[in-house]
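User: Show me a protein chain along with its predicted structure.
Assistant: Here is one chain, sequence first, then structure tokens.
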Amino acid sequence: MTRAKIYLVIALAFVLQLMPWSTWVHPEFVLMTLLYCLLRSPHLCGIGTAWLVGVMLDLMTGVLFGQHALAYTLTAFLALFYQRRLILFTNLQQMGYIFLLLLFNQSVMMLLQAYTGEHHMLTFLFSSIASLFIWHIAHVFWLNRER
């Protein structure tokens, strides 16, 4: 994956993230794209990229400044920490780890939103499940293209 492809795919994820989705099911397209790039090309996409993408998403959505940046940075750190092992996992094992990363990211987001007075208790679980299905579809699609 080249740097230009990474930026193009992240830009497409921004467009999909900003589309009007249901309040209960809002997939994390930007995070899913970021995780894929982190796991496939850690030399091109790192924690700094996750922070920058998070700041840009904060500015685009108008939420608490730094909310996505902090959550994406912490999630990227955990993803890169186990990146070499995760590549060797089967698709089902990767989905389990990605689901844990999604839940961690949503928990950080929920904690930060609780400080501002917003309470969305179960929506983060539905968003994580929807994002996991998108991860599986994208993973199968990109693996078939790479072979």
